[in-house]
Amino acid sequence: MIDRVCFLVGHHHTYSNIDNIDYQILVEADFLVNLYEDNFGINAVESTYKKIFKTENGKLFCKHMFKLNI
User: Fold this and answer.
1) Is this model's pTM higher than 0.85 or not?
2) Mind telling me which SUPFAM superfamilies this protein's record contains (predicted)?
3) I want to staple 58 with a disulfide (CB 3.0 to 4.6 A). Which of 21, 28, 42, 67 is the partner?
C-alpha cells in the first residue's frame, strides 16, 4: 500500500499509462482543482473533459462544476 501511494503521489501529473482506477480518480480530481483554481476557459475545460475524464463520477463533477452541456 505504501508503495502504491508513493507511486501515485510521484506520478499524479503524468497522464499517460494510467494503470488503475485509483490513478484515474487522482488525475481527474487534480484536473478538477487545477481547472477551477487556474480559471481555465470553457474550451480548455471541454477539451480536458474529452481527453482525461473516464469515470462516471468524474464526468458528473466536471459537468456540474463548469456547467458543461456535453
Assistant:
1) yes
2) HD-domain/PDEase-like
3) 28
Q: How many domains does the chain have?
A: 1
Contacts of 54 (CB under 8 A, 6+ apart): 24, 28
- Residue 25 maps to a domain: yes
Contacts of 48 (CB under 8 A, 6+ apart): 31, 35, 40, 62
Residue 5 lies in a domain: no
According to the model, what pLDDT value does residue 30 have? 96
Model confidence pLDDT, tens digit, residues 22-33: 999 999 999 999
The DSSP string of 10-56 is HHTT--S---SHHHHHHHHHHHHHHHHHTT--HHHHHHHHHHH--SH
Boundaries of domain holding 35: 20-70
In a domain, 52, yes or no: yes
